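Schema walkthrough. Field components (list of strings):
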Amino acid sequence: MIFKSLQANILRDKNMKSFPNTSLRQLAQRITQALGSPEQHAREVADHLVDANLAGHDSHGIVRLPQYARHVADGDIDPIADPLVVRDDGPFVLMEARRSWGQVAARAAVEIAAQRARGDGFACVGLAHAPHIGRVGVYPLRLAEQGLIAQAWCNCSGAARVAPWGGTTGKLATNPIALAFPSRGEPILMDITTSVVAEGKVRIAKNAGKSVPDGWLLDKLGQPTTHPADLYEGGTILPLGGTAFGHKGFALALMADLLAGVLIGSGCGLMPGTRNANGMLLIVIDPDRWGQREEWATRLDEYVNYIRNTPTRPGVDEILLPGEPERRTTQDRIANGIPVDDGTWEQIAELADRLGVDVTDDVTR
Amino acid sequence: MIFKSLQANILRDKNMKSFPNTSLRQLAQRITQALGSPEQHAREVADHLVDANLAGHDSHGIVRLPQYARHVADGDIDPIADPLVVRDDGPFVLMEARRSWGQVAARAAVEIAAQRARGDGFACVGLAHAPHIGRVGVYPLRLAEQGLIAQAWCNCSGAARVAPWGGTTGKLATNPIALAFPSRGEPILMDITTSVVAEGKVRIAKNAGKSVPDGWLLDKLGQPTTHPADLYEGGTILPLGGTAFGHKGFALALMADLLAGVLIGSGCGLMPGTRNANGMLLIVIDPDRWGQREEWATRLDEYVNYIRNTPTRPGVDEILLPGEPERRTTQDRIANGIPVDDGTWEQIAELADRLGVDVTDDVTR
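Field assembly_structure (string):
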């Protein structure tokens, strides 16, 4: 396997190789183009995946490429499609993804939300029936980079890894919620799943042959387990709050279903008639409608200093704000490469080979 | 002590008495009037507190009366004051509580939010510097009862029981988030603190002389503890997610600070210049702007059936939606009375006595 000789200089683990992000970006783009996408769509998808890897969210990175290729083969993704606005009522906009790439559709939703929020001070944009939109946090982040406060409520149909509180079978997905708040510097970004962990993290552990910590999973009988494979045999991921306070995570996940699935008509979980899709509701507010930017931005600076200036527990160097760990990881991985485990790499190399994409070209650039 | 002979018929615990909710309602109203409130304000406060007890949220019920009396004595609550709209820009409204009762100010914010959301399809109403607003969930609930989707982001200044993730000293409050979604029947209500538990639950345990479960608290050195008193001696409450995933609860709490404190200028935690107050941001959306009510309400009914129809774990009779446990408790306590522990009751009786309010009059009606 030729790529073994091309591994980058950082070897973090005997089952890990590291690659420059630019190489993975080009490889991902070429694979996506080979799947039938025009260059612009392919770049959008590739940048999204590799940016997720850079941020440390490997579960939403290039590990998804083989899955995406299957979705294209199955007809769930139409690689040349664009999303369509199907309802347009001032700040209230509903888009149908029409099997376009999730990242392409979500980017379009972000753009229309920014436009409407700048005009009305507010926007509420739904995206229905999208293929996997990837790392949800990037969408409110893009809006916050334009000075807007943005919430993204996201749900899934066709997947249901989380049981209703007190139940034993999966009915809800790991429905992520992300919220970004602008500042004079980088936005503050909350990006959380409403489950204890994202499904992708369990998948990564399974691919790597590792167990997961106690408190992540229940098996199909509702008993705690540390075997990631149990999830894929009828088990469930615990909602945020775990065994004692999971009713809170269940409530958050259910609200994501109501906003991103029921309200906009995108479907939820394994309900009859649903297909594999993400729904997303963006709720965007222009903070400048609340007063002079200087005023709230100054208050924000003072608040950030107040939070940072907290004594830390032994072993913790400094207080990091939500979104900062991802920025630190991004800086590190830009400098030192993106680690990719052998199992994931083999799947991607195999996919590239099948599509006639030359891996050596990309990873040596 | 005369009230001992008047205890209601349900005795759940040797340290508990139960009272009809109507009796406690009148007692609370008379105490609040004796603190200087006009009848309408007093009824608003009393109904809020006793409704919280009915719902099972005793930490936000009549246990608060002695604390409120201290706030009146200290001048933090002006019992005759009304809130004031200080910014009015279509769907964007900012109110200052001006030391009016928190419940009175929050009710006013709800009313203006409902009015604006019906017109614009959207409202974003901030309430700054409010005395304790009580159980936050009731505010979005009132909006959902009028057919609106409502979020309430709430924060506190003057209190800081939660440490930034990785820190040892309290900087954030237990900042609750509530979201209500209307339906053909009762609204679905999520009402959660962003900490593992609300501070009031620790206070209840302390008053009752009980320990708290592991995973609720850290002591002032950042070590886990089960002694509720440790919280009041420099300890902190863990954010939602606990010792392993508390970064998620920290992010939620911080976002509540940004929306309900920084954005609207209400202050956060123990920052310089803050005083004891709640901030609240209501974000309200008219779901009918998304399509015919029949359409989404039908989808909601189908979704609720889908969630309810889940096999349960041993010991769990049925799946309850968020907000349902509180409605069940309300029905039970309307029928069987509200249990009040002796410690709380003695404080209230002492307060009533000091104010010249005759306890026997109320609890026998």
